[in-house]
Design goal:
153 residues; mainly beta; two-stranded antiparallel ribbon
């Protein structure tokens, strides 16, 4: 087997959350991540080419997340928005936006949640090498539906 280590990018995160009148919860978070700081190490291989490629390909990105919840016992209504900045140096427009909404029902010791997320990504895409033509303008939409059944003990 081949043993190696990976150092993942650093992150700086600031967040805020508040509860109003025991009915409303609001939260916001901003995150700065430098993907170019990812490194690979091994005693048996230098990884210099791979680390240079990582440094040449990736950059810093800012991610923003906001959300809220309304508590209408036993129901909970939730909504959120997230913007994930592009980690790519050559494609700064490659951002992802997430819109989410959900509802939950609290039965005391049991709860049921349902959420929907629309994830939209757009940017330029090159099949093999970003320095060659042609580039395709890609707009992607993904839809996620999640159901959760939970038990408190």
């Amino acid at each position: 087997y081949f043993s190696y280590e990976i150092t993942t990018p650093w992150k700086l995160i600031g967040s805020f959350s508040t509860i109003l009148q025991n009915k409303f919860m609001i939260n916001a978070e901003i995150e700065q991540t430098d993907y170019s700081f990812t490194r690979m190490y091994s005693d048996y291989y230098s990884f210099s080419e791979e680390n240079n490629q990582i440094n040449d390909t990736y950059t810093e990105a800012t991610n923003i997340r906001v959300g809220g919840e309304v508590n209408l016992n036993p129901f909970k209504l939730r909504a959120g928005y997230a913007l994930y900045g592009s980690p790519y140096k050559d494609n700064p427009e490659y951002e992802t936006e997430n819109y989410s909404a959900g509802v939950g029902i609290d039965f005391g010791g049991t709860f049921f949640d349902m959420s929907y997320t629309l994830s939209k990504t757009s940017g330029d895409y090159a099949m093999y090498n970003p320095n060659t033509e042609p580039h395709a303008s890609v707009n992607s939409e993904k839809h996620y539906l999640l159901f959760t059944l939970g038990f408190r003990y």
